[in-house]
Design brief:
Length: 465
């Protein structure tokens, strides 16, 4: 069993010499990587790299894979206190559960929820996450604080709805002022990346959608919105505009390379063509499709058409390995079985969709997502000395099918150790969990949540009475 204690005291430049290093050509043996000032500085043959830098400490991990951290292209940090409340519920849970819950949270509870969610992200191997924006009034700074506390790289969305769908809806001028201040506040931050969001197109006027998109384009940030996710939303758009939500965004000029659309599960062939032609990116959320969706995004078709996409959790289950497995499995069940496609993209597609492709979709392609010189040292150390990887014939596929978060021994962002064997090294996660256990029930009780079904626990209790 590897001695991981040296990881706790790393300072300055260091060379990692793992058993395998996951580079563009796959998981390769015999390589080492130099980390300097929080970035990957050099990659090369282990003997050559260590010989060029004889004075630097070397971390030998012959039974580990060093791979890029996963990137969650779509999540909601302020929903972690409600998690299983949505299980078994009809699809549009945001109206009955998430908006009431988030809107009722005070700043302290937003902070607790965000820190818990960030911890879950890191435990699942996500070194970066794209938050779609909190609907809690004026508490977005708590998401930033949670990311800094935990070390999670965060693309944080400022919601700019001007037609509802948030706890507070300021007037147009105030929305634009807040948006500009948000973009400016984190423009050069090493860990926090600003973004603007409109929850769904119908809660933003055409003028606001265009203005916010232009602000993002000018700032080099991404614009986020949920599009073509549920049947009722598509129908509402058809009634209001005569066009489906994605068609309407195209009609008003609110698509493009700086746009990240969550879900796009209900897309027509012509809408896929629109996505390809505009360079718009998509967050493919396979677990969300299973748990509360109306359809599965045609990710394999998107890949074949050159549509940019990355994997996202939608705040469902923060395990990057299980997310890749779900991404591939849903494509196999939804499309591959009927067409006799045994590959369904191959293991490499799903690893890239969780790392480099996700970075590109999230506006982080020049920051993270790969083990490459100049990029942030956001990476995982995976223990390969496990039954699941023994014997190993195709590690790329094995990571997709057999990988699990309990195989992650260490998580780094910006070259700094954040988690060791699942737990933070510089703050007390168990104290956080205890406080949440003591306070979350009251917060949930105070929120005007409307569930359609009783909990499974209550059904079991009623059966024995």
């Amino acid at each position: 069993m590897a001695n991981l204690d040296p990881l706790r005291n790393l300072k300055g430049d260091v060379i990692f010499r793992p058993g395998r290093l996951f580079v563009e050509s796959g998981p390769q043996p015999g390589l080492a990587v130099l980390i300097r000032a929080g970035k990957f500085a050099e990659i090369g043959a282990a003997e050559d790299l260590t010989a060029r830098h004889p004075d630097l400490p070397v971390i030998d991990l012959p039974e580990h894979l060093l791979m890029p951290g996963f990137i969650d292209t779509h999540t909601h940090l302020t929903q972690s206190l409600g998690k299983s409340l949505v299980f078994g519920e009809p699809s549009e849970i945001f109206r009955r559960i998430w908006v009431p819950l988030e809107g009722s949270l005070d700043a302290h509870m937003v902070g607790l929820s965000s820190q818990l969610a960030a911890l879950e992200c890191l435990r699942g191997g996500f070194t970066s996450a794209v938050d779609a924006g909190t609907r809690s009034a004026g508490h977005i700074g708590m998401l930033v604080d949670a990311a800094r506390q935990t070390g999670l790289r965060l693309v944080v969305g400022q919601i700019c709805n001007d037609l509802g769908g948030a706890a507070v809806v300021p007037d147009r001028a105030e929305i634009l002022r807040i948006a500009a201040a948000h973009l400016a506040a984190y423009a050069s931050d090493p860990l926090i990346h600003p973004s603007l969001a409109i929850s769904i197109p119908e809660v933003g006027s055409d003028e606001m959608l265009r203005d916010v998109l232009q602000m993002c384009a000018d700032a080099g940030a991404i614009f986020q919105t949920h599009v073509n996710e549920h049947l009722v939303a598509v129908e509402r758009s058809l009634v209001a505009n005569g066009r489906r939500p994605l068609e309407h965004l195209a009609h008003i000029g609110a698509l493009g390379p700086q746009v990240l659309i969550a879900h796009s599960t209900l897309v027509t062939p012509s809408e896929l063509k629109i996505l390809a032609e505009t360079g718009t990116a998509v967050a493919y959320n396979p677990v969300a499709s299973v748990w509360k969706g109306n359809a599965i995004a045609p990710a394999l078709q998107m890949a074949s058409m050159g549509i940019r996409f990355g994997l996202g959790t939608d705040g469902t289950r923060a395990d990057g390995f299980r997310l890749m497995d779900a991404g591939e499995s849903l494509q196999r069940a939804g499309y591959g079985l009927a067409s006799g496609d045994g590959s369904c993209g191959g293991g490499w597609l799903w690893l890239e969709a969780a790392t480099s492709m996700a970075a590109d979709a999230s506006g982080l392609g020049g920051v993270t997502g790969r083990i490459a010189p100049g990029l942030a040292a956001d990476f995982l150390l995976i223990d390969l000395d496990r039954p699941e990887f023994t014997p190993s014939h195709d590690l790329t596929w094995e990571l997709v099918r057999y990988g699990n978060r309990d195989q992650i021994d260490a998580v780094f962002t910006n070259g700094q150790l954040r988690l060791l064997q699942g737990w933070p090294v510089d703050w007390d996660a168990r104290a956080l969990m205890q406080e949440i256990r003591e306070t979350s029930a009251k917060a949930i009780a105070n929120a005007p949540i409307h569930r359609v079904h009783p909990t499974a626990d209550s059904i079991l209790e009623a059966r024995v009475k």
